[in-house]
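[step 3/7] inverse_fold.run input=structure_tokens len=298
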């Protein structure tokens, strides 16, 4: 058990400073005290946290995991102390966020920037990837995803409604023409990326459903690359409306088959627990919801 919070504070300072001696100088502690606290922490956890060398400390895999959690724990303790001493909470600590690349670039990144500008004691670690991020194993505070998870022990907050639409650049549509029905998509060049595949399921008027097997010469595992290809006129793309709303508004892309769209794929935030949610996470969730529901992507 972690009985002494000073051990955690010392561990985090050691990692940040890069050595026991540097941490001792920053904390105004003797090297023997710093070394003893680290040894005690490793003994309590029955885990080797630091691989020691003559040049620089390196964290073990277990040490990296504890470091991420320790930073969050210490930030929450600091918030609680702030609230007790001043009657209000000054948001602080590292906000670790995961998001898909396109959504992160367009919306999550700007929200993180605004939070850092508004709250000097908040810092952000943003991971943009189109793979599914394991929030717990990777030490994230919150993960933003497109599409509600079917089965998750995490808490989910719906941030905005969303669905996939078919879009194409004016240059492509002028060259190849506009499909008049879902079936005509089979005769078009269609851009595919991981998450959509080659079979597109469209829902139309009156709940009609059409499943179309599309052909593609351009495939990518990255949504940004797929969108760049669509903008260059390489083919039609099946993409979340929230990812293409700016390009649609600016006329860089056009909506194809406007009466047809994909199944609901809301933008959701996942986090470990609703109870004692850090202030920085609440601020992020509220800011994301405001941005995604105002209908613009500036």
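[step 3/7] decode complete -> sequence:
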């Amino acid at each position: 058990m972690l009985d002494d919070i000073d051990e955690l504070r010392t561990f985090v300072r050691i990692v940040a400073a890069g050595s026991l001696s540097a941490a001792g100088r920053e904390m105004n502690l003797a090297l023997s005290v710093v070394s003893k606290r680290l040894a005690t922490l490793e003994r309590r956890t029955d885990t080797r946290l630091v691989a020691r060398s003559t040049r620089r400390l390196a964290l073990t895999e277990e040490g990296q995991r504890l470091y991420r959690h320790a930073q969050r724990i210490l930030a929450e303790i600091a918030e609680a102390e702030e609230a007790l001493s001043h009657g209000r909470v000054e948001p602080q600590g590292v906000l670790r966020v995961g998001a898909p690349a396109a959504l992160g670039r367009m919306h999550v990144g700007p929200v993180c920037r605004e939070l850092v500008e508004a709250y000097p004691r908040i810092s952000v670690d943003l991971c943009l990837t189109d793979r599914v991020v394991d929030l717990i194993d990777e030490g994230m505070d919150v993960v933003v995803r497109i599409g509600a998870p079917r089965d998750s022990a995490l808490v989910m907050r719906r941030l905005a409604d969303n669905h996939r639409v078919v879009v194409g650049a004016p240059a492509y549509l002028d060259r190849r023409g506009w499909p008049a029905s879902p079936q005509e998509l089979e005769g078009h060049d269609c851009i595919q990326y991981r998450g959509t595949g080659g079979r597109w399921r469209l829902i139309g008027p009156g709940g009609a459903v059409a499943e179309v097997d599309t052909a593609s010469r351009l495939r990518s595992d990255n949504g940004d690359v797929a969108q760049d290809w669509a903008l260059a006129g390489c083919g039609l793309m099946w993409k979340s409306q929230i990812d293409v709303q700016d390009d649609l508004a600016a006329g860089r892309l056009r909506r194809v088959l406007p009466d047809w769209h994909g199944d609901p794929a809301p933008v959701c935030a996942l986090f470990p627990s609703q109870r004692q949610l850090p202030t920085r996470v609440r601020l992020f969730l509220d800011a994301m919801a405001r941005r995604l529901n105002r209908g613009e992507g500036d």
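[step 4/7] annotate
Residues 93-161+266-294 form a domain with the D-Maltodextrin-Binding Protein; domain 2 fold (CATH 3.40.190.10).
The radius of gyration is 24 Å.
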